[in-house]
User: Fold this.
Amino acid sequence: MTASRATRAMQPYLERIEHLRSLRDRGADSQKLKRHIREDPALSPLYQTYLFLITLKDMGMAETRGVFEVVNFEDWIVSLSTCNPSIEDLADGPLLLRWCPIKENGAPLLVGQVSGHPHLREGARVQTSPLMNLQPTESWARSCNRFYNLGERDDGFLAELRKDGRLAPNAQRLDPF
Assistant:
């Protein structure tokens, strides 16, 4: 692993959001934008999470009224992709050891061994929810669900998980890494 590879920051969803905004700016209607989101393998799981969260927030009313604002979805992704963790976020965040950025079924993720996760056993081999922001020089990453503290990077962990059948056959190291 080269030093530049170890230190490159990544916000994989910002480019997708720029594309979505350009479609909207060129006059794409809400139905076309929603179809684009649902058909994008990286945006689709975030769309489902977003709908779940707004449904909880609005006690189910948002989806039954047919309300979906692409702009709010875009803003939510940009917020997750650009927010920096607070001291508390990092103090409460689990540690991801032997981490490696991957792309599986079109979605960017981190894989690694987790320590201090509120719901997973110590040392579990995991893949995160979609990767929103990776800042290896600052030793943290943001998934859709939480901040992670980063330990040592280990690109060999991907091969280990693949050998054990823990990843989809199309899983690969996430470029530009």
Residues 1-5, 59-67 have pLDDT under 50 and may be disordered.
